[in-house]
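Supplementary notes (optional reading)

For those who missed the lab, this is the record we used. Protein: Probable dual-specificity RNA methyltransferase RlmN. Length: 368 residues.
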Amino acid sequence: MPAPGELTFVAPRGASKPPRHLADLDPAERREAVAALGEKPFRAQQLSRHYFARLSDDPAGWTDIPAAAREKLAGALLPPLMRVVRHISCDEGATRKTLWRLHDGTLVESVLMRYPDRVTMCVSSQAGCGMNCPFCATGQAGLDRNLSTAEIVHQIVDGARALRDGEVPGGEARLSNIVFMGMGEPLANYRRVVGAIRRLTDEAPDGVGLSQRGITVSTVGLVPAMLRFADEGFSCRLAVSLHAPDDELRDTLVPVNTRWKVREVLDAASTYAERSGRRISIEYALIRDINDQEWRADLLGRLLKGRGAHVNLIPLNPTPGSKWTASRPEDERAFVAALEARGVPVTVRDTRGQEIEGACGQLAAAER
């Protein structure tokens, strides 16, 4: 059952449930599932080691498992979840966007971004999005369905395998950061996103073994779910997609604001920061002549005073045919200066992927 006040969504009529996968299950459930297949329970840990640690879902290489059991285990616990429609790269290969087709034909996207000091992967938690933000390609497409825990995890496993196998220029590397900023509102798919975080951060062979501190979860401000997330005991970073400091404008840019207002969202974010010990990030897409006025920067600075927040300004990556576009450079500079004058730390996000339809949802929309 959802927490009181949490948004829930109904899958489209006719949508089929993703097949059960090893990554949907915790270690105890995996042992039970393996035993139900007539195999010894310890095979669950062997299977987990192959998938999470060795990044292998090909039974041909599982030489520590009897040949007769491999196909049975693979068919029951590592079914195909998604296939690559295409990869598109830019930045001399350092940025790679992947369009996936899920088992039911649904399309989602992920992005792998390699920097000199880190590798970040941006993953989707839903196919589409139900938040209806007018400047966002995903939001305008609407919600198809939630992704399963395994469908989320598999995006990261595939990215880690691509880095290990040298598919991304620059030599072998490891993922260092995961951001839930792809398609969808992560906290609207709460249970599966939390499950994915646990699979990603459980020590091998039970999980991928990533650090919680390297994971960022973005939300438009689903207050009950934010407070519930604060009780999970995670040390992930929480990023709030604010985009406007005043309720009048934010009601339009982020329609869920009609339910939970700016101050409620910031108070919930502060609660998470206190319990997790992590500074919150305020995501703010700068949109020309809409939310980039200097007075709005000053208001944002006053609202954030004493909250220990960091503002991440995002030059809008415009979508084809949209009236929304990025701010003028001089307006961006004035916005930054106004925040700094209020003592609020601020950075302007490095924009990547514009030439490969980098904004979330653009590639899926083009494919449709």
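If you only remember one thing from this example: The chain is about 35% helix and 20% strand.
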